[in-house]
Fold this sequence. Notes:
Elements: H1 2-11, E1 14-16, E2 28-30, H2 32-51, E3 56-58, H3 67-72, H4 75-78, E4 80-85, E5 92-94, E6 98-107, E7 124-127, E8 130-141, H5 146-161, E9 166-168, E10 175-176, E11 204-207, E12 211-213, E13 223-225, H6 231-236, H7 238-243, E14 251-260, E15 275-285, H8 291-308, E16 316-320, E17 332-340, E18 343-354, H9 356-365, E19 371-373, E20 378-380, E21 383-390, H10 391-402, E22 403-409, E23 415-421, E24 432-436, H11 442-455, E25 461-463, H12 469-479, E26 483-487, H13 489-493, E27 499-503, E28 509-512, H14 514-524
Parallel strand pairs: 3-14, 24-25, 24-26
Antiparallel strand pairs: 1-2, 4-5, 4-11, 6-8, 6-9, 6-10, 7-8, 12-13, 14-15, 15-21, 16-17, 17-18, 18-21, 19-20, 22-23, 26-27, 27-28
Helix pairs in contact: 2-10
Amino acid sequence: MDNIVALCKRRGFIFPSSEIYGGLNGFFDYGPLGVELKKNIRDCWWNDMVRRRDDIVGLESSIIMHPKVWEASGHVAGFTDPLVDCKESKQRYRADQLFWEPVNVETDERTPLEKLPIPGRESLDVGNGKWSTTIGYVSALESERTNEELREKALELKRKLAFKGELRWSSITARDITAADPVRDIPHIPSPATGKPGSLTPPRSFNMMFETYVGALRDDSAISYLRPETAQGMFVDFKSVVDTGRVKLPFGIAQIGKSFRNEITPRNFIFRSREFEQMEMEYFIHEDADWDKCHKEWIEWCRQWLLSIGLPESHLSLYAHPKEKLAFYSKGTVDIMFKYPFGVQELWGIAARGNYDLEQHAKFSGVPQVIFDEATKKKFTPHVIEPAVGVDRILLAVLCAGYAEEEVKDDKGNVEKRTVLRLNPRIAPVKVAVLPLLKNKPELVAVAQKLHAKLKRKYAVFYDEGGAIGRRYRRQDEIGTPWCVTIDFETIEKPGATFTLRERDSMQQKRITEADLFALLEEQVY
Ligand code: ATP
């Protein structure tokens, strides 16, 4: 991750927001290359999801909506994460990301009362003549190594207290702090900030919506919210879209836009930030339709789409939310997971939400959210399948999957390191770099500039005449440019006017005509 973050900064993909003021946690800026990459991801999604389908239309709803929207959707009451404060360091943690364990040590004898590491916490008789004593607690933040870290800390504690006996784990996998008893456990759990117990508060609900005021008054009646998801726009505008007469069930409404969540612990670079961009779609189906089939089709569509922009199949997996954890109205949710360097995490959630959202808005607004069924001559509220994905999470996934450091041989046979970003041509910020072999040969430069001008009418291209050709190739490798075209002496001297086409991944070179270059781009960049 460190290398990817460094590359993003160095080459202008992503910068911390307001960096000259020390940055603002959970906010990022996209630099010259990042903004191109992001736009390409968005465009691919929009083209495939909206323009190339007959059953989906687009929408751009406002970021700030009527506050009632968020009451109806349940966000005012329930869009919360459990929060734990450390009173000493003033740090805040998401309770479900803070793991803990009591450290129990088994001995042959009962620990005398005056020697109990936690006063009053007496040894327990665990049978076979053994006694178990809780000598303290350990905690660790969620990571790939949470369990190992807890065990290491437990051994460390045992060593520090010079407590003889065998370490016994009370649960197989660590528990998060929502499962801790506020009286028995929490006062003894060390804060990750200070390493000492006694400063953590019991978890409480924290609403993640950013509040703001609309209009000149600053009282409660003016409170509104920055949207925490784009999805509600599609529900609230459902009737307006239906009334345009352009759509017939089943149909979808898609939207790309910014969302805001006051995440307690933004982390893992742009994976979890406070301002991010979502691409969401609500696919409305008949109340009697086979929702399960439709849900499965959407999961596969989304998976195939991720493959089409170059994510490797080996990094993708599916996670079906257990029935008992679903909201009462939900019929099922499956997440497409991606193997990030910091663990396997949710990339795209595909939820079958029944007709809950439309019914809620009908209830709160008093405006029926129904459709007329010609066959049965009855009105009904459609059900919905919702694929919701974050642009930033896709962008991070393509960077992580594409990043490689390799050892390669240069022209003279010397081994050198090359950093390469294997970005799919569909989303690569620069599609082709045009390079005249020598910058002091006007004949080469003229042809190169002409080609560059022609290409840039349709594609994002880059013109580079500075430095040795090998170094110029490396610069393009590092930003993920799939092809370099070199204008060399053969171009101007031999018939056929061919260029050298150098391919990023294989580093193979071949000769190509201008017509073939355009044909290649036409086929690969869509
Ligand atoms: P998580 O469990 O990771 O917080 P979620 O289940 O709350 O995510 P949804 O509400 O389903 O997420 O949002 C849909 C998609 O929006 C997610 O799959 C993810 O790609 C993206 N997303 C959600 N929260 C963030 C965030 N804080 N930063 C970046 N992307 C996000």
